[in-house]
Design goal:
Length: 380
């Protein structure tokens, strides 16, 4: 397989060397050449892992997905991703690629080859040549949205997230999708987006929605969005941002709402929330994310508000690792010893904090005030 993939590399014709690259992929499975677009984040770091997003109907959706990804990765904490758009508009390729048997609802012979092209050629090539993360997502519209469901028919789905925009459903798909989603033990995201204008598939889509919502599956994260003002054409431009928000939500900094409704109301130690949040990123995406200062401050504030001072110790240890040159770690540790009733340890720790760099609201003056108060109270 490795030798075969190296041959694929030689068969690529580079059209552009920019951040967005359009190439011609010589497919052995399809026995034809296919136009494929790639987006690679600027200044890619080979030590980092990048989620992979496959975009069907690349002629229509690729640029929108790239723009949404760039915006969310810059402002909303989403990880930078490698995005691949498969062009299918030329000669109505999308209908041949995604055709299904009208009786069985299964892919046609060309559809099977297209399925293997993506799963056995395109994705392995990218995994071999780029630093891709285990997490993979697929986006489709209309007939291509139906086609992406066929990856649910395997025991092990190669995709972790599905964005289905106004699908034209194959026979029995409204019952098959809920059944298949119910079989997976790994965490899956399934986003269904539809327009307000009724189509011949609307009733079946709503039946599928009802079937998925009836599932009691902790590992399934299902989202349904209906845009009343959209028709079957305009809906392709709706909902992508919401889909990214839903799927990559755990990458966002802790929000005021999250702080109030989840952290303050939890009966677990405050620090446990932070642990679970960042371990969840590792478990799902296959790589760790640096702990954001916003999240550290949220946990610190919650520890004080709930008088959960035991959480200050692991939080201080984390800060020493993530922000080693700043006051954070030693200042939080000083407060921990202070609340524990160990003033000598607290004083020494605040003295260490005083020598470090200021950060956020923490200043040397605050550390000095803590030191002076301890000296006054205990006569040091």
């Amino acid at each position: 397989m490795r030798h075969l993939l190296l041959i694929f590399t030689l068969l690529f014709v580079i059209v552009s060397h920019s951040q967005v690259t359009q190439e011609i992929f010589e497919s052995f499975k399809l026995q034809e050449r296919r136009d494929v677009q790639y987006y690679f984040p600027e200044k890619m770091d080979e030590n980092k892992k990048y989620p992979l997003i496959i975009v069907l109907d690349g002629d229509y959706l690729f640029e929108q997905v790239v723009a949404t990804s760039k915006f969310y990765s810059r402002f909303h904490g989403m990880p930078q991703s490698i995005i691949v758009g498969i062009n299918q508009s030329k000669n109505d390729l999308r209908y041949a690629d995604c055709a299904f048997d009208p009786e069985s609802g299964l892919p046609s012979e060309k559809g099977k080859s297209f399925y293997e092209f993506i799963g056995m050629e395109l994705i392995p090539y990218l995994d071999l040549n780029y630093s891709t993360a285990p997490f993979k997502m697929i986006v489709g519209y209309d007939i291509t949205a139906n086609f992406e469901n066929y990856w649910l028919f395997k025991d092990h789905s190669i995709f972790d997230a599905y964005v289905s925009i106004s699908p034209i459903l194959a026979p029995e798909m409204e019952t098959r999708v809920p059944i298949r989603l119910n079989t997976f033990e790994k965490k899956l995201f399934y986003q269904l987006i539809i327009e307000g204008e009724a189509t011949q598939d609307t009733q079946r889509i709503m039946a599928m929605d009802k079937g998925i919502k009836a599932l009691e599956k902790e590992t399934l994260h299902y989202f349904f969005d209906e845009y009343k003002s959209a028709d079957h054409i305009s809906v392709a431009t709706y909902g992508l941002g919401k889909a990214f928000d839903n799927i990559f939500g755990m990458f966002k900094p802790i929000s005021p709402k999250e702080y109030k409704t989840q952290i303050l109301t939890s009966e677990e130690p405050v620090y446990t929330y932070l642990e679970h949040k960042y371990q969840g990123i590792v478990d799902l995406f296959g790589f760790s994310k640096p702990v954001e200062l916003n999240d550290i401050m949220a946990i610190y504030a919650a520890s004080r508000k709930k008088e959960d001072f035991e959480s200050l110790k692991p939080l201080s240890d984390l800060c020493k690792k993530e922000y080693p040159d700043t006051m954070l770690g030693f200042y939080f540790e000083g407060e921990y010893y202070e609340q524990l009733g160990e003033p000598k340890k607290a004083l020494k720790t605040f003295e260490k904090a005083f020598q470090m760099e200021e950060i956020d609201f923490l200043t040397k003056e605050m550390a000095l005030e803590k030191m002076d108060a301890l000296k006054a109270d205990f006569g040091f």
